[in-house]
Design a protein that fits this description.
The chain is mainly α. It contains 4 helices and 4 strands. Helix content is 46%, strand content 6%. Strands 1-4 form a two-stranded antiparallel ribbon. A two-stranded antiparallel sheet has the order 2-3.
Length: 136
């Protein structure tokens, strides 16, 4: 029997020859090589991504301690940060439970609670999702 001919197994299904097995192995190896740069790129994008608080459609509003967006002057609510928060500082605050650099503990908690409430389609959600997937 020739080396590259296909044999059938006990169920009548063709067994792959050596050439096919080698090609499948090469494809798997290239997949592993491709994943590493993608993970590095994800880490770099987390460090650079930004989350606006609140989202542009609700600018001028404040953030309550529970992360909800409330009208200015609401007792116990905090003014928005005045800048977009960077993914890396948000990641650190979420992991440690600590403060976002430049903001007090209670403000930071309100902002991280707002971020936890982000949903698909809201500004900053993609950045937050990337942060969540990178945890480990």
């Amino acid at each position: 029997m020739a080396e590259d001919s296909e044999e059938t197994g006990d169920r009548g299904i063709a067994k792959p020859d050596r050439r096919h097995v080698l090609m499948m192995g090469a494809a798997a190896a290239s997949t592993v090589v491709t994943v590493r740069p993608a993970l590095a790129q994800t880490q770099a994008s987390i460090m650079a991504c930004e989350i606006p608080i609140p989202d542009p459609g609700r600018m001028g509003n404040y953030i309550a301690a529970d992360g909800s967006v409330v009208p200015p002057g609401t007792p116990g609510a905090f003014p928005p940060p005045g800048r977009n928060l960077v993914g890396e500082e948000v990641r650190r605050a979420l992991q440690s439970g600590g403060s976002i650099p430049g903001y007090g503990y209670e403000e930071s908690q309100a902002y991280t609670n707002y971020i936890r409430r982000l949903q698909n389609g809201m500004s900053g959600f993609t950045c937050y999702a990337s942060i969540q997937m990178s945890r480990g």
